[in-house]
Design a protein that fits this description.
five-stranded mixed beta sheet, Ubiquitin-like (UB roll), elongated, 2 domains, alpha+beta
């Protein structure tokens, strides 16, 4: 059989195969397009529909979780506060437990005050508007709460001043043998009846001035 005749016989088969491949490619394209475009059609296979819906549900759930997390992170944080300690505050003594201390001002006026056990002279003076500065806030870092104990017996009943207090007393104006820092003298029953004199001047030098 000659070659032209054989080719003529096979030509219809080639056309049929070509048409079949085009149809198959078109069908695949129909299935593929919805998956890319996000649209579903009646010709989409059930497996593709199920996958599309599962993907959409997962994305929606993920977005919802992220939104809830964002809302939680933006909620105001709880905070706590501690009460501020006001310097110079003393509580009045309980009946029958009063201790007495007398302040002598630079003008010579005497102020006898009833106090509680444990109160220090700086807080007592400031609570009663007496002229005692206490520039360092009672931290034994200055000499502006300098007082002079008027009687040696009461001075001897006090605990010995430590090195920090002695260092600050060296800076005090009008230093005497019975000088103390008011912030370091705490009232006890042994000191009941104590008298202290406020110096005529104070020298506001603090330990930080020498660092």
């Amino acid at each position: 059989m000659s070659a032209p005749r054989v080719f003529a016989q096979r030509l219809p088969r080639l056309r049929l195969a070509l048409d079949s491949r085009q149809t198959s490619g078109s069908s695949l394209a129909q299935y593929a397009r919805p998956r890319c475009s996000g649209q579903l059609t009646a010709n989409t296979p059930r497996l593709a529909v199920s996958a599309h819906r599962s993907f959409g549900l997962a994305a929606q759930t993920n977005n919802s979780a992220r939104w809830q997390s964002l809302q939680t992170s933006q909620q105001p944080r709880p905070f706590s506060t501690s009460s501020a300690m006001s310097h110079g505050h003393v509580d009045p003594p309980k009946p029958g437990e009063e201790l007495y201390v007398t302040f002598i001002t630079k003008e010579g006026d005497e102020h006898k005050i009833s106090v509680s056990k444990g109160d220090n002279l700086l807080d007592i003076a400031q609570a009663h508007d007496l002229d005692m500065e206490g520039a360092c806030g009672g931290s034994c870092a200055c000499s502006t709460c300098h007082v002079i104990v008027t009687e040696q017996d009461y001075y001897d009943k006090m605990p010995e001043p430590d090195d920090d207090e002695n260092d600050m007393l060296d800076l005090a104006f009008g230093l005497t043998e019975t000088s103390r820092l008011g912030c370091q003298v705490h009232m006890t029953p042994e000191l009941n009846g104590l008298k202290v004199k406020l110096p005529s001047m104070t020298r506001n030098l603090q330990s930080s001035d020498f660092n």
